[in-house]
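@here heads up, posting the sequence + SMILES for the 2-oxoglutaric acid run so it's all in one place. Ping me if the SMILES looks off, I pulled it from an old spreadsheet.
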Amino acid sequence: MTGRGPIDIGGVKIWKAALDRATQERLMECVERIAEVAPFFHPETRGGRKMSVRMTSAGICGWVSDRRGYRYERRHPAGMPWPAMPTPFLDLWDRFAACDRAPESCLVNHYVAGVRMGLHQDRDEADLTAPVLSISLGDDALFRIGTLRRGGPTRSLWLSSGDVVLLAGEGRLVHHGIDRIRPGTSRIVPWGGRINLTMRVVTGGDASRSEAEAQD
Ligand SMILES: O=C(O)CCC(=O)C(=O)O
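bot reply: prediction finished. Complex structure tokens:
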């Protein structure tokens, strides 16, 4: 179903060229609809610095950052609820994540030339055993994969449009980041650059499952 098996780097699984062009275009249409309802914004760090990456979200909650720190919120910083998680996103979760809980949040990152994301762990979620599924659309990006330890050795590989990355099991808390994109390598994103979709289960309990299902 997913073609060739994944590459495994330190527990992080990468399926190269997993999504065909039609699927990528369908996902991109969903991103455009999300951005119409919940526009991209540049989050601020706790220190008041604007992040270079632009973000928005879909699902019952979205990841935000400002002077109060990183967290998930039920509303966009401008006050509107996040758009519902699109069905094509849920289909990918079912296909790759091997998780009996539905994703509650999809972070949508937009990278252009010069934008990067530093090495970090995804640990703002209540259940750190639930997987994180990441989809690349648009320009190539240099993905850096470290270890569970901050400051450990790293390896890099280029992610292209249609590649799928899963952080699960021993790879769930591996440090990772984006060093740079290669502008103009894809025409999938109408505004240019790269879109990354990251789906996550955010809450810890059963209550969240019924909330996520109530969105369907
Ligand atoms: O853009 C990517 O491929 C990685 C995104 C990421 O690490 C994150 O949003 O936490």
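MO: The chain has a mean pLDDT of 93.
MO: One more: The chain has three helices and 13 strands.
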